[in-house]
Amino acid sequence: MAQEVLRLQNLQKSFGSVRALKNASFTLGEGEVVALLGDNGAGKSTLIKAISGVFPVDRGEIYVRGQKVSIRSTRDAMDLGIETIHQDTSLAPDLSIARNLFLGREPVNLKWLGVFAPLDLAKLRDAASALLKRVGISKKLDADALVSTLSGGERQSIAISRAMQFAAKVIILDEPTNNLGVEETHGVLRFVKEVRDAGHSVLLITHNIHHVFQVADRIIVMRRGEIVAEQTVADTDLLTVESIITGADMSALLREARAK
Amino acid sequence: MTIAAEEEMPGAKRGSSLIRSPQFSSLIILIVLLTVFAVADANFLSPLNISNMMAFLPELGIIALGMTLLLTAGEFDLSVGAVFGLAPVVVMLLVQNGEASIGVALLAGLILCVAIGAINGLIVTKIGISSFLVTLSMLLVVRGAALYITQGFPLKSWDQPGFFVTLLAGSFNIGSFRFYTSLWWFVGLSLLAIYILRYAKLGNWISAIGSNRNAAVARGVPADAVKIWLFILTSVLAGLAGMISAFRISAASPVAGTGYELEVIAMVVVGGTALTGGRGTILGTIVGALMLRAIRNGIVLIGVPGLAYNIFVGVIILAMLILHALLQKNAARG
Ligand SMILES: Nc1ncnc2c1ncn2[C@@H]1O[C@H](COP(=O)(O)OP(=O)(O)OP(=O)(O)O)[C@@H](O)[C@H]1O
Ligand SMILES: [Mg+2]
């Protein structure tokens, strides 16, 4: 495997009596696309929220490039080069595209004024336009347009380009193709490939196994808070993965394990 | 992947969005109202009446500035009217009991406001109770405290001229108009609020938090801290307004500011700030503050019976909100 970028070891997280994450460990290599699969409630979002600093884990360790790190806030994760596009939240609809692209990392003048520093509006707009051009959605989108006027696919593209722009080591996408049309879905998958080709690692959560086989190098399957299988895409097929996810065909699983 | 306004020229787009913007429609209505009042009663634009309106305007207007920022971040504060009453009462009690000089007492009053705002903010953000419930309870606590420590009696306010009186409630004449220094407070604070909301990094955060809190948090924006500071700001501005008012009329009443919370929220939403957060406009709030002031004043002048005037105020507010909602719907359809 390529050089290790992110390694999780024995992550555990409970919400009251719900053990959302029981004992999750895996490794993500440089320039690798790993698909994280599992049924609703399997703990996928919980896992990536822990990595991206939305909430702390109860136990376990996270290593970035071999260094043990503690991720206590979303800011910590961003500073470590981990950019996440969450399932339920990514953009502020009442803000312009440009303001969304730089939210939390606004270019400012007079930096010493802290949070009262004036935004560098010219730079904000220029950088946003350049970025929109780079990801190939420039023709129609105005950096000053409000995000509330965009389609779901356009929003997703904006969120992904935002993750790309900060040259993150790891980009995490939680169900990025949800609710998207055919064309938009292809756009997102194309982004994933572009991002990988640019040297970023991608952790992709999805319910669509076909997408997985199009873009992923490796598959990780979760069930009830645990990682139950890990396979390279080349070594498996659609039906096998499907049965692992649902847990329907345990015998096939066992056979596989023995065969290895 | 197309957006509706694609064919329009960028300039045209910006122009039409200004005309469609809520603060602009509020401004038009304000001008219409002022014209109607001026035609109906010549006294409406008399120096005396304008001076009168300008004396009241800043006191609610200053609170409305804080409330606009708070609403934009997705929260609101019902305790402002009570804080408006309590702060000057505490100041005057400290002075009258000889426990502090006027300067120290004012400072103590403001610190009390900071504490009230901080408690509101901490309970809302850290315990996760809606700001409606938290600040409604705080309204009762604060109003109750003002009544209890005064035993319900108004206090005679500090009326000896001096630095602080001039600073908060000094007055000056321009021609036959009489203006209070509070107007400068309002102008200065308005400019500051416009700067913060539109041009500063903080304003970007405030709008983002109100628009989609989780998205803002995911980008590393300290949403809770921002909200707590906005609660503190709103509380402090309410206390400051209360002190200005008490100095101007030389009396501090424990029931001063009753009902101001709703009046202030009305000013803010009439100006076009969304009650649901994310969209705030200080210019709109200034227009809203002027409008409510003009309505209250004009309605009396044109001879609507005093007891009926809340009917008119309510109807006009409702009409404004309907207008904003229709414009909003139109804009969404593009
Ligand atoms: N904040 C929370 N508080 C309480 N329980 C939670 C919370 N977040 C998640 N859970 C629970 O943890 C479990 C895992 O949820 P998670 O969101 O990680 O699932 P998921 O694999 O992302 O599912 P989906 O495919 O539906 O998005 C679920 O049982 C869920 O109800
Ligand atoms: Mg999920």
Automatic annotation (TrEMBL), chain A:
Presence of the UniProt keyword Nuclease in the record: no
Top-level taxon of origin: Bacteria
A Pfam cross-reference name: ABC_tran
Limits of the ABC transporter domain: 6-249
GO MF annotations in UniProt: ATP binding; ATP hydrolysis activity
Keyword line: ATP-binding, Nucleotide-binding
Record-linked SUPFAM superfamilies: P-loop containing nucleoside triphosphate hydrolases
PANTHER family per UniProt: CARBOHYDRATE TRANSPORT ATP-BINDING PROTEIN MG119-RELATED, SUGAR ABC TRANSPORTER ATP-BINDING PROTEIN
Protein name, entry field: ABC transporter related protein
Species this chain originates from: Mesorhizobium metallidurans STM 2683
Lineage per the UniProt record: Bacteria, Pseudomonadati, Pseudomonadota, Alphaproteobacteria, Hyphomicrobiales
